[in-house]
Amino acid sequence: MLLKSYSEYYSDYAEKVSELVTMFPLGTPIIGESAQKEFIGLFDAILRLQNILTSFDEFTGHEILSDRQGQDYRSVYLDLYVNFRKDKNAEKEQINDDIVFEIELIKQVEINVDYILMLVQKYRSGRGDGDDKEIRAEITRAVDASPTLRNKKDLIEDFVDSLSADGEIDREWRAFIFAKREAELNVIIEDENLRPDETRIFVDTAFRDGHIVTTGTSITKVLPPVSRFSAAGGHGEKKQSVIAKLGVSFERFFGLSSPTEN
Which of 84, 101, 124, 224 allows an S-S link to 193, with CB 3.0 to 4.6 Å? Predict the structure, then answer.
């Protein structure tokens, strides 16, 4: 099969974007599963076409959606991803036979923490001159459009609210994340009656290696002592509860800053 030319791909892209903004204008709720599926399919097609077009030099500067529009549409798309994924396998991008989310393509235009901190610097510099509200809204839009930053939104917003007048943003960010991570970990240790030292070693290892280990003796070492008279099932449930809580905390803080930098 012959590959299409740049102009053919761009024509398809322009047509799909025109359909998108006409059928699903920003700010208008998408009501009903049928319309939501149509939006998902249309945006999937745009993501795939954008992915192809980025390999052509001619595409640079000819994107039809503005950065702000792109972020807002990605936010809507990710909202639907979360809603359709409820009660489904969290690892699957294909929810059922007719709904597929191109999350990996979304991640190719991922907003990273450095970009957010740049916006935070602009926000602090502009406080009081009228631009700060728009920059604050831009921070929220950027986070909402990011698959990996969405579950960190409260952390980012709390950090913005805690900014000093003239401190170094990167240093304040690392100190803030370290304090928040420690506070959340202390709550888990107390609530689950975990061994503090072993738990911190376990968590530090997870951040170093990039994942939580759910099998073997590592996780067992953090659990509280189990009476010989305890039911085996109770121990298993406790282990799963601890893994779940540590996993949620890990996902919230992983990638925000290196513990060794704090």
Answer: 224
Q: Is 96 exposed, middle or buried (0-12, 13-18, 19+ CB in 10 A)?
A: exposed
pLDDT in tens, 233-246: 567 888 889 999 99
Domain residue extents for the chain? 6-107, 111-167, 168-262
Assess contact for 64 and 24: CB atoms under 8 A. no
Provide the CATH number for the domain formed by 6-107 in this structure: 1.20.58.2040
Residue 230 gets the label, from left (phi > 0), alpha (psi -120 to 50) or beta, of beta
Cα torsion angle, 241, 244, 249, 254, sign: positive
How open is the CA angle 174-179-182, to the nearest 5 degrees? 120
Q: Cβ distance 163 to 145 under 8 Å?
A: no
- Give whole-number Cα distances, 196 to 182, 205, 235, in Å: 11, 14, 18
Whether the pTM exceeds 0.85: the reply is no
Cβ atoms of 123 and 135 within 8 Å: the answer is: yes
